[in-house]
Design goal:
Strand content: under 5%
Distance between the termini: 36 Å
Number of strands: 0
Largest sheet: none
Length: about 450
């Protein structure tokens, strides 16, 4: 009974977190499906390019916001309301500053997009679409700031509800603006960009309004704006947030860099890559929801100083993610030729995507273990060594190997993705070993870090 209860607690946190995490990929999925239905391969390839490039700044900003969750979980376990308020206040300011800096940097880089060695007709569509995506980022940052706060409290439902509402809005707006329905002009990929912009701002403002008006949030609002600004709090959040961002950046950046390599192989290859990476990103985000649950629970037990519960939570999180990712791997293998038809009917794209789904199925379990391992380590506030391990797995192993197989050995798409499979597997092994090493020496590790 006790065993079942522990699993239930993780699942109760993970399911809303999964649905909330999916908001980051469902926007891109809706774009890909609806743009694909126009039959314009150049537009689909442009969406692939823009969404893959944007995934890098998105995961950086999301990683910065993740710094608050384990600390809030610790303070909440010890019923330290003022400290929870302080973390929210400072993380909200810090996340906003980072968001504006990233937007400014991306606007500065936009004119240099023509140097990416992509097909001109693809870039002509991708650049204006990307501009709308940049403008959507501050809304996403606002959402993440409040979402991570509520996650740290063990309440993952607010983020889920707001995410679902915003994604439904995105689907409706995509339909209206891409195809010219409900009296709107037919705007194609530009309509998808405008839909992205509106839905992400609705997410951010929606969760902020929940914090302002929801009755149970009153104790967190009381005295919130009188929290003193402390530079040390910004420094502490950056010490956690920047390494977490780099972890995400190294992994997602590897996939984005792969998209650029694939772009050199032509629009058919890039369109196939986009279809498979969209689905693989969804399963990753679902596994990331389990990782978020493990961060929250382990952070809670860190606050209580309970070593045995930390180890137990880690083990059960791994079991859950292995079961889940085995299921998604089976789906990829069974329906590898049917899934691409949801996006586009062009035979060359469908065949290329079906081949990639076989490789994506291979790395599902590795991907799940490594993301949950990182989540467990975040709960322990262990971020520096995992960041270096992530750098090694993707940029020392996966990318060079993928380039060598895909470009130098002329294996094409399959070669580049096989390199990613090897990198993910190495990362999974490293994170698993690191967690058990740190968790078994929990008190010594906490003493050193304090």
């Amino acid at each position: 009974m006790k065993e079942k209860s522990q699993y239930n607690q993780l699942i109760a946190l993970a399911i809303p977190a999964i649905l909330s995490q999916l908001s980051h990929t469902l926007v891109g999925l809706a774009d890909t499906i609806m743009i694909g239905q126009t039959g314009n391969v150049s537009a689909l390839a442009a969406s692939a390019l823009a969404n893959n490039v944007l995934s890098v700044p998105i995961v950086f900003l999301v990683g910065i916001s993740y710094a608050s969750t384990p600390k809030i979980a610790e303070f909440f376990a010890r019923k330290e309301v003022k400290n929870c308020q302080s973390i929210l206040f400072h993380s909200l300011l810090l996340n906003t500053i980072w968001g504006l800096l990233v937007c400014a940097f991306l606007w500065f880089l936009l004119p240099f997009a023509y140097k990416l060695d992509q097909e001109p007709k693809v870039l002509a569509l991708a650049i204006p679409f990307f501009g709308y995506l940049i403008a959507s980022l501050p809304g996403l940052v606002l959402f993440q700031s409040f979402r991570q706060f509520y996650d740290g409290l063990g309440n993952t439902k607010p983020g889920m509800v707001v995410s679902i509402m915003a994604n439904l809005l995105n689907v409706v707006l995509n339909y209206a603006l891409i195809f010219g329905k409900f009296g709107f002009p037919e705007m194609g990929i530009i309509g998808a960009g405008i839909s992205n912009l509106i839905s992400r701002w609705v997410m951010g403002v929606g969760l902020m309004l929940f914090f302002i008006f929801e009755q149970n949030s009153m104790k967190w609002r009381k005295g919130f704006f009188s929290v003193p600004v402390k530079l040390k709090e910004f420094s502490n959040l950056n010490k956690l947030g920047i390494p977490i961002s780099l972890q995400f950046l190294f992994e997602v950046g590897a996939f984005s860099f792969t998209a650029i390599l694939v772009g050199r192989m032509g629009e058919i290859s890039l369109a196939a890559h986009q279809i498979v990476i969209t689905l693989a990103s969804m399963t990753y985000m679902m596994a990331s929801g389990i990782a978020s649950a493990s961060t929250i629970r382990i952070g809670h037990f860190v606050g209580l100083g309970d070593k045995e519960k930390i180890l137990e939570t880690g083990k059960k999180s791994m079991v859950l993610v292995i079961i889940f990712m085995s299921f998604t791997a089976a789906l990829f293998l069974l329906f590898k030729t049917q899934i691409p038809l949801l996006f586009i009917e062009k035979e060359e794209v469908v065949l290329a995507a079906a081949s990639l789904f076989s490789i994506a199925a291979l790395f599902q379990i590795s991907d799940g273990i490594q993301v949950v391992g990182l989540g467990c380590l975040r709960g322990l506030s262990d971020v520096k060594v995992p960041t270096l391990l992530t750098l090694f797995a993707y940029w020392v192993i996966a990318i060079p190997l993928g380039y060598w197989l895909g470009i130098s050995q002329n294996m094409g798409l399959n070669g580049t993705w096989f390199g990613l499979f090897i990198g993910l597997t190495i990362s999974a092994i490293c994170m698993l070993l690191r967690f058990y090493l740190i968790a078994r020496k929990f008190k010594l590790f906490i003493d050193i870090n304090e």
